[in-house]
Specification:
The protein is α/β, with parallel strands linked by helices. The chain folds into two domains: about 10-190 and about 370-380, 3-Layer(aba) Sandwich (Rossmann fold), CATH 3.40.50.2000; about 205-365, Glycogen Phosphorylase B (Rossmann fold). About 40% of the residues lie in helices and about 15% in strands. It has helices at about 20-30, 50-55, 75, 80-105, 115-125, 145-160, 170, 175-180, 215-230, 245-260, 275-280, 295-305, 335-345, 350-365, 370-380, and strands at about 10-15, 40-45, 60, 110, 130-135, 160-165, 180-185, 205-210, 235-240, 265-270, 285, 310, 330. The strands form two sheets. It has a seven-stranded parallel sheet, sandwiched between helices. A six-stranded parallel sheet has the order 10-9-8-11-12-13, sandwiched between helices. β2 (about 40-45), α2 (about 50-55) and β3 form a beta-alpha-beta unit. The radius of gyration is 21 Å and the shape is globular.
């Protein structure tokens, strides 16, 4: 094992301690980085992320950020007063981060979330440290306010020294000046030694991910409603929780699920600590985003677990799924097409097994977590 490089103390910065995709990816990444670089994680809040970090040999410090950073209230996004307040709070958090970075003598600032790209990037520049953005979101107005996109695009040219993009779909949203310093480092997954147990009857259809409108759980349930009219004996599970003020969407989904069978066939599991165990024995895993996904972590997790995947035909999944070979691609927002793809896999176990085997081998080759860790270490070593 390589010794730590004392000249490169890395501070990973995240604005939230909720366990969304970016935070889970960070906890997967750190075990491959901490043996090589002295590492500090600075979080903008306390929460479940800090519990996960407690089992990793990493220092953790909380530099509180304002609660407005974790709000996803679309009605407030467009108000100028909120926009001005957000900018003011970002600068204030950047000042507090700069003090922490200077006190900890951090040599590299590595930001993990959109809000931390801005505040952490400013703080890093103020203390004279190079900044690395791990860009896990597409810089487009589909999921972000237009003003926020414009700010991030402008800052991507000047704040980060290097950018790690989770997919080509993400890298392509950067301006030309930022693309030149960006490289794709795919998120990875730990590959289980053996595939999950064989699916049992009735067919078990699962969907994993944060409960959010653009993630498409409502499309998934519409597809299940259509499918259940022909195949009433289905076991359906939705894994995930709403974050950032999206609780009303969960209520909508529960009402929609109740209309299918009176609430008996669809189970909402909440957050699951071990997704691979949750996937064990599933017949089909569904990804149904209605807007381009930055990458598709849940897709490679399902493939690694030996579960065939149906995914939306846009964004990051196009870099993972070869249609008809390692999974099925379905037009986004189309419950009829999604229902047909799910049914095809239910009805043809031999085809399902072929896809499962090919997908698992592909993930083991292209998306092991060790490859992600090596890519980030190589990037950090190159930062001057």
């Amino acid at each position: 094992m390589a010794e730590c490089d004392d000249g490169k103390r890395v501070a990973f910065v995240t604005h939230t301690a909720q366990l969304g995709g970016a935070e889970i990816a960070l906890t997967n990444l750190l075990p491959g980085v901490t043996p090589h670089f002295p590492t500090l994680v600075i979080s903008g809040q306390s929460g479940p992320l800090l519990n996960r970090l407690s089992v990793i040999p990493v220092s953790v410090e909380v530099v509180p950020c304002p609660s407005i950073f974790t709000s996803c209230d679309e009605r407030r996004k467009g108000r100028n007063t909120t926009r001005f307040r957000l900018c003011f709070e970002l600068v204030g958090w950047a000042v507090r981060l700069a003090r922490a970075l200077k006190r900890k003598r951090s040599a590299i600032v590595y930001t993990n979330t959109l809000r931390s790209h801005v505040a952490g990037g400013l703080a890093g520049r103020w203390v004279g440290a190079p900044v690395v953005w791990h860009l896990r979101d597409r810089l487009s107005s589909g999921q972000l306010a237009r003003a926020e996109v414009d700010l991030l695009l402008r800052l991507s040219r000047i704040l980060p020294t290097r950018i790690a993009a989770v997919s080509e779909a993400v890298r392509a949203t950067l301006p030309p000046e930022a693309i030149e310093k960006a490289e794709v480092i795919y998120d990875g997954v730990a590959i289980p030694e053996c595939r999950s147990s064989k699916p049992k009857k009735p067919p078990r259809i699962v969907m994993m991910g944060r409960l959010a409108p653009w993630k498409g759980q409502h499309i998934f349930l519409a597809a299940i409603k259509r499918l259940s009219q022909r195949r009433p004996c289905l076991q359906v599970e939705v894994m995930g929780t709403p974050l950032f003020g999206e609780e009303n969407y969960e209520k909508r989904l529960r009402w929609q699920a109740a209309e299918i069978t009176g609430g008996g066939a669809v189970r909402f599991t909440g957050f699951i600590e071990e997704p691979l165990r949750f996937l064990s024995g599933a017949t089909v895993a569904v990804h149904a985003s209605t807007e381009p996904e930055p990458f598709g972590q849940v897709i490679i997790e399902a493939m690694a677990a030996g579960v065939p995947v149906v995914a939306s035909r846009l964004g990051g999944p196009l870099e993972i799924v070869e249609d008809g070979v390692t999974g099925l691609l379905s037009p986004p927002g189309d419950p009829i097409a999604l229902s047909a793809c799910i049914e095809r896999l239910i009805l043809d176990p031999a085809y399902r097994d072929e896809i499962t085997i090919r997908a698992r081998l592909m993930v083991a080759e292209r998306f092991p977590i060790e490859a992600t860790q090596r890519g980030v270490r190589r990037l950090l070593e190159a930062v001057e």
